[in-house]
């Protein structure tokens, strides 16, 4: 076929016309998308940088902080001096804009969504930057770097699920490691990465393909861990960061405990700690039974725990644990003191969880439900996860030995896999937070924006398919 015949298709009566043309709605949609970016960037930059009480901890690379954001602020301070805050604002705002553009494009391609959804994607993905929301780009906190990085990770996850290549998965694992080096909360991405490795092996019907992805994930985890320990060793002379898992993990079980639970602990220190803390919680009415004054049922319990979480952890649990598990000289936040506190509080938490698993799991489930947006939102997320999983398991299996990309082309399972993995990341985020803290919007907003875009796209595509005759689908 000649070059001319490839470029043009000739109708029965008429002049040659291009075989492919720009979709009618794409130009206005792209214009609207650009307008959203310009408006949000103007709003963020006009508001200016906002220093917070925790900003000093990042500027001075406090031992409790992961290394990536302190490195960013220290680098900007070295380059711009007193103007580092404005420079950080520009880096965070422009980084967020580029990440929103990249993630919106990945959503549209992975889900095969119409162009007119792209400005809607941009609006939703920009929500955490708005002053009425979290305003993450203005804050000199790790959130300003973590949100753009997460959007990049979500885009890479969408592309990996759609294309199936090892390189795409490796990039997702790499950015996941960078996120953990920015905010420890993003540890939930490691189980999602393991799920990706399993899916790659299933999709290609090859144990080797899945094992290769799992190996790359393991290398990224080891690399991120080594970098963090090396940073801590150089900055603070100790490889480990101060542990706070125990005092956070024990908060909910103590809130739910009863006075008779003291009999669960044979160790004198653990029993003494429980009796002292639980007596203080009852005296201040920071226990489950007092939840009725804020509302009925589970909602009241979650609100009551949320309102007094810092009082429970920092005014009650930590001082008691410091005195009982780590008596003697030393500052409260010295590493040996914190290790002793962490070990003791973890043992108490595990004892209460083991004794009352149903009570604790019910509370975590309620906390997760309200963190996801309430019963309706949680039910919607669960139904879509089940629907996408059913789609993945009922698709025709590809030919044995096909590559992951070829398998996706044969089965058409790319959009379903992308939806399942992104929604699984949103759920994993909520589950991790529910174990140690109340599931608040500021923790869930990272994954909620991408999950919302995905649910909107699936709803639109589902409604459009209802009007298409079966033989045309």
Structural overview:
The structure is a single chain. With 473 residues, the protein is mostly helical. It folds into two domains: 29-237 and 368-462, no CATH class; 258-355, no CATH class. It has 21 helices and two strands. It has a two-stranded antiparallel sheet with strand order 1-2. Helix 7 packs antiparallel against helix 8 (166-180) and helix 17 crosses helix 20 (414-436). The longest helix has 30 residues, at 207-236. The radius of gyration is 26 Å and the shape is globular. The two termini are 30 Å apart. Mean pLDDT is 85; it is low at 1-14, 17-22 and 407-412.
Write a compact overview of the structure shown.
This protein is mainly alpha-helical and 473 residues long.
Global Rg: 26 Å
Strand content: under 5%
Largest sheet data: 2 strands, antiparallel
Number of helices, where a helix is a run of at least 4 consecutive DSSP H or I residues = 21
Structural class: mainly alpha
The tally of strands reads 2
**Strands ordered across the widest β-sheet:** 1-2
Helix content: over 70%
Termini Cα gap = 30 Å
- Run of helices and strands: HEEHHHHHHHHHHHHHHHHHHHH
Form type:
globular
* Integer average pLDDT: 85
Q: Please tell me the total number of domains.
A: 2
Low-confidence stretches: 1-14, 17-22, 407-412
């Amino acid at each position: 076929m000649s070059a001319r015949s490839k470029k043009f298709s000739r109708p029965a009566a008429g002049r040659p016309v291009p075989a492919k043309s720009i979709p009618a709605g794409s130009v206005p949609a792209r214009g609207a998308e650009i307008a959203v970016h310009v408006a949000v960037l103007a709003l963020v930059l006009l508001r200016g940088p906002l220093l917070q009480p925790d900003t000093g901890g990042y500027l001075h690379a406090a031992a409790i902080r992961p290394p990536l954001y302190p490195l960013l602020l220290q680098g900007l301070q070295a380059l711009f001096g007193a103007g580092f805050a404005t420079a950080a604002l520009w880096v965070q705002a422009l980084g967020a804009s580029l990440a929103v553009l990249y993630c919106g494009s990945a959503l549209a391609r992975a889900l095969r969504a119409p162009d007119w959804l792209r400005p809607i994607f941009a609006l939703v993905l920009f929500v955490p930057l708005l002053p009425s929301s979290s305003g993450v780009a203005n804050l000199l906190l790790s959130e300003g770097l973590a949100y753009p990085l997460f959007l990049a990770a979500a885009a890479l996850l969408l592309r990996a699920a759609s294309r199936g290549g090892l390189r795409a998965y490796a990039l997702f694992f790499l950015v996941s490691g960078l996120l953990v080096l920015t905010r420890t909360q993003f540890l939930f991405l490691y189980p999602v990465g393991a799920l990706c490795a399993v899916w790659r092996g299933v999709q290609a019907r090859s144990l080797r393909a899945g094992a290769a992805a799992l190996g790359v994930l393991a290398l990224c985890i080891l690399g991120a861990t080594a970098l963090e320990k090396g940073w801590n060793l150089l900055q603070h002379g100790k490889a480990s960061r101060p542990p706070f898992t125990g005092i956070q993990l024990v908060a909910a079980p103590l809130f739910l405990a009863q006075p008779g639970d003291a009999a669960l602990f044979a160790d004198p220190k653990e029993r003494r700690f429980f009796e002292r803390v639980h007596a203080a919680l009852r005296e201040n009415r920071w226990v489950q039974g007092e939840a009725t004054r804020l509302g009925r049922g589970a909602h009241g319990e979650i609100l009551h725990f949320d309102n007094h979480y810092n009082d429970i952890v920092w005014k009650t649990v930590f001082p008691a644990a410091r005195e009982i598990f780590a008596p003697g000289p030393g500052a409260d936040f010295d590493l040996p003191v914190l290790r002793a506190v962490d070990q003791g509080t973890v043992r108490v938490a595990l004892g209460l969880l083991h004794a009352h698993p149903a009570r604790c799991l019910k509370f975590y489930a309620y906390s997760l439900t309200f963190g996801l947006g309430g019963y309706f939102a949680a039910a919607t997320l669960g139904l879509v996860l089940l629907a996408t999983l059913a789609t993945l398991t009922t698709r025709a299996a590809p030919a044995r030995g096909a590559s992951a990309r070829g398998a996706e082309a044969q089965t058409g399972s790319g959009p379903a896999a992308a939806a399942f993995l992104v929604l699984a990341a949103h759920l994993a985020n909520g589950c991790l937070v529910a174990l140690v803290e109340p599931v608040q919007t500021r923790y869930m907003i990272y994954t909620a924006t991408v999950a919302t875009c995905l649910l909107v796209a699936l709803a639109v595509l589902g409604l459009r398919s209802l009007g298409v005759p079966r033989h045309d689908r």
